[in-house]
Design goal:
Elements (H helix, E strand, L loop, with lengths): L2 H21 L6 H8 L3 H5 L5 H25 L4 H17 L6 H9 L8 H22 L8 H21 L6 H14 L2
């Protein structure tokens, strides 16, 4: 695929992302994406065969970007506490943002898939877990973080973050203090 084709795919993902944020996954159709991008059905289907393919590319792009960002900061010797604070700040921002969350779309997309070792959500969980485990190990080795049960702390962070994001879509939490307290407690568990 040439440069123009790749640019079109990027434009499709950007338009679809807005739709997924506002409508969830299951309520977005290829017709909606055609209307949002101005592409004909044939033009859209030249690049993507389904909303599942588009959503999968969006999620993979988001996860790759975050994973690479953290890895580069570790390689460059950036303070583990600074990296953690940036990551927790991003998570908190997403937890508090009731209008721009992919939480519902994420849940709808992954809950429609069969449970198996090849489950895409399970793969994303393992990618996230490895990334955060590496960060915590890095922080411990630099003497910035306390000795902790790394896997347990990572699971606490991931499931708290995903749980709040999903529940905000079906049970809006008016009390931002819940999310803030959760993030602050995780930080307290780690930073010396």
């Amino acid at each position: 695929m040439g440069k123009k084709g790749e640019e079109t795919k990027i434009a499709i993902r950007k338009a679809a992302l807005v739709l997924f944020i506002h409508k969830g996954f299951k309520d977005v159709t290829m017709k909606d994406i055609c209307e949002a991008t101005g592409l004909s059905r044939g033009g859209l289907y030249m690049h993507y065969g389904s909303t599942k393919q588009i959503f999968a590319d969006i999620i993979n792009e988001i996860m790759s970007s975050l994973e690479n960002e953290v890895a580069v900061k570790i390689e460059n010797g950036i303070s583990a506490t600074i990296i953690l604070d940036e990551l927790l700040g991003r998570y908190l921002s997403e937890m508090l943002d009731r209008s721009g969350s992919l939480g519902l779309a994420f849940y709808e997309y992954y809950s429609s898939m069969p449970l198996s070792d090849d489950n895409a959500m399970l793969k994303q969980y393992y990618i996230s877990k490895a990334m955060i485990c590496n960060l915590i190990e890095y922080g411990i080795n630099k003497g910035e973080f306390k000795q902790v049960n790394i896997k347990a702390v990572v699971d606490l962070l991931i499931f708290s973050y995903q749980g709040v994001r999903m529940l905000n879509n079906i049970m809006p939490l008016d009390d931002d203090k819940i999310s803030i307290d959760m993030i602050n407690e995780i930080r307290t568990m780690l930073v010396k």
